[in-house]
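**Fold in tokens:**
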Amino acid sequence: MTPCERIPKNRKSYIFYRTAFLLLFTGSLVIGIVCLLRLFNGENNAVLFLLLFVLLVPEVIMVFNIAVFPFQYSIFGRYERSSAPEKEKPVFRRDHSWGAVKFLRVTPPFFSWVIFPSGICFKILWIGKAFISFKQIEQLYASRNIQFRVPFLARTYFVLKHRSREVRSPLFIPQEIFQELNSKMEDFVMKKGDT
């Protein structure tokens, strides 16, 4: 599948996730209200709180999926995301790493990066994976984080802006990924210029 084509998902898969989310949300809302009522009456809620936690975990993971991927390419959406090229061998891989997509920052060991000769693939444990080709990358640069006013939180971030409609932009990448990606993109541009 090329990064530009839209491949529809099996209808049952996204209908299942939409229904599951509604049922989980309704169940956690009802259990949450019952917990509050029992709490005000001084009754024991340990089992209900455990059940509430079990219902909330998959809901949070589903919401994180929408934070990383636009709705149409999320688990609720109608389209498949581009997968990594099957015929290409990875040139660089970093497992158990960190990264961020738009607003969602993921700490180690939940993020994995793989660089191919034609693009970059990332995987976030339990949330999903996607491939961005070098043709879709618009900017790759280092940026000083000015969002935080506290000096020890300020640091340099490496930013990858892209025009893929399957993944939210920008991606914040580790320095080693930035360096590898920078050199591979230069190789890609040189090869593209030779043809």
In short: Helices lie at 11-40, 46-68, 175-194.
